[in-house]
Amino acid sequence: MLRPLRVPVCLCFVLCLPAPLHAQTQPNVAETALAQVIADHERLDRIRDPLTAGQEGDIEALARLPDVRPESERKLREAFTTLGKRIAAIDARQLSAESRLNHALLQRSVDILIEQYGYDLSRIAFENDSGFHTLGDYIGRTTVIASRADADAWMSRLQAMPDYYRQNIANLRRGIGTKLTQPRIVVDRVLDVARQQAAANPEDHVLLTPFAKMPSSIPQATQADYRDRALQIVRDQVVPQQKAFVDFLAREYLPAARKQIGWRSTPNGETTYRFLVRRETTTTMTPDEIHKLGQSEVARIRELMEKTIASTGFKGTFAEFLHMLRTDPRFYPKTPQELLEKASGVAKRAVGGVPPLFGRLPQLTYDVRPVPAEMAEGYTTGRYWGGSMKLGQPGGYIVNTSKLDQRPLYELPALTVHEAVPGHHLQIALAQELDGLPYFRRNLGPTAFVEGWGLYSEFLGEEMGIYRDAYEMFGRYSYEMWRACRLVADTGIHWLGWDIEKARRCFIDNSALSPHNIQTELERYISWPGQALGYKIGELKFRALRKEAESALGEKFNVRQFHDRLLLGGPLPMDVLEVQVREWIKAQQRS
């Protein structure tokens, strides 16, 4: 899973229009209009999302946090609606092939953002393991102070933090009033984290981390002044607001938490869930179709797992093999350091296996870090935190070192190639470096593409020799089964009205995931409907496109060129990617 920076704008249904033969011979008003609208969109999007803009080195954006007040979002929706009309007025037939793609993607991006605003999703301001309350901790741990301008920008963000809390609490309160809240199982988890945050010693607060290391170009007296002012803001403004959030959760939100866990039970829930499914998968698949796909994938992967068990010589049943994996101490690290070192070892081997599969690699490096202690209880097994070459921030492969008896080592290779390379780090860092693409293209985040690529990377681990024995291969299949069960569980909970125990069965019966990980994952699906669907749907499309290319090209197929074709256009909706790959196949056939 990737960086917790922004709600992705995922896109569906592109229309590829042929350009008339005379288009390039006339003064091209359409190209000029498109260039202007792309520039205007970038200005708007940098206002809307200062987090992503800041990652691109925008110093003004680095001084801001998102403005999530209803009146601000209303103004943004109006501005994007006006922009959308300007995009629609451009005659795409007068554009070059690349400009037609930019035009279509921009139209989709704006359309889906406008639709998203209509559902007022800001009323849900947190998931089980992340949200507005953890955003400050995240950016505090990743912010680098390289100049006085950076220091001033971080100070501005600190000053904005208390109001950011107030805005989100007001949105949550609006959710109570409109009966759109998270279920109690999610609120309990968030309340635990919020209490730990509020109880922290201000002098040790994570928000002070960026000022712990400053360049020598900033005089020592000035550095001390920054630290003193930051501590005062944290102690007198941020921590009181964190305590107010705890009080709000306990006194107001928890009693109002909804009883049913499924999104379909919320006001306008059926329509909203259909939108979320479409946004996350970039397909026209219905929840029922996705549920059936999940069931068929469970059956297919189960056969692979059975064959792998047989190769170990194990004589018991499938359930007995799972019990052995979940309880045998040889499969579990004894210390957090051992887990981190083994994750680093797999990551190093993966780096060595990447060059034969890719023509272009990112410049940005990454490191292996533990999940922060106060977040670890309800956090996923691992995650990727995006970095920035422009800001001097490495990417981060984040490994959960809590509950070591729930972190099996046979799953570590699949986790590593998903989160690091050739998975999220390679794809996301490479997209950031595609300076020839417009800003919005570099920062598109279709879940089906981004997370589908992560899961496809687990498949690539086989070619890279990452899985060294049958147990690690079983861990790889168990991870794929996990994503197949997501299709079943997410639609089961949010569309079919399942309770958590019915959703749990798929994971318990078919995967080697530990009980704690299963519980954490289920809470995540409950709190973040639809997002879990993108992984398997995207991965299946990547694998289908590769199979199609291999079949069509035969000896002409070059896996490095194929992967570059997938990644060097930036993250794309899966139907658009399909068109791009088929055009590439035709070009290769002609060469």
Explain this structure.
The chain is an all-alpha fold and 591 residues long. It is 62% helix and 2% strand. It contains 23 helices and three strands. It has helices spanning 29-48, 50-55, 70-89, 97-118, 132-142, 148-177, 184-199, 220-256, 269-281, 287-312, 318-327, 336-353, 373-376, 412-419, 424-432, 439-442, 447-463, 470-494, 500-510, 515-527, 534-553, 559-567, 574-590, and strands at residues 366-370, 382-385, 395-399. The chain has a three-stranded mixed β-sheet with strand order 1-3-2.
Share of residues in strands: under 5%
Number of strands: 3
* Broad shape: globular
- Strand order of the biggest β-sheet: 1-3-2
Task: Measure the end-to-end span.
Answer: 38 Å
- The helix-and-strand class reads mainly alpha
Can I get a quick summary?
The chain has 591 residues and is an all-alpha fold.
List keywords for this structure.
591 residues; mainly alpha; 23 helices; 3 strands; globular; disordered N terminus
How does the SSE layout of this entry go?
Elements: H1 29-48, H2 50-55, H3 70-89, H4 97-118, H5 132-142, H6 148-177, H7 184-199, H8 220-256, H9 269-281, H10 287-312, H11 318-327, H12 336-353, E1 366-370, H13 373-376, E2 382-385, E3 395-399, H14 412-419, H15 424-432, H16 439-442, H17 447-463, H18 470-494, H19 500-510, H20 515-527, H21 534-553, H22 559-567, H23 574-590
Parallel strand pairs: 1-3
Antiparallel strand pairs: 2-3
Helix pairs in contact: 1-3, 3-4, 6-8, 7-8, 10-18, 12-14, 14-17, 14-18, 17-18, 17-21, 18-19, 19-20, 21-23
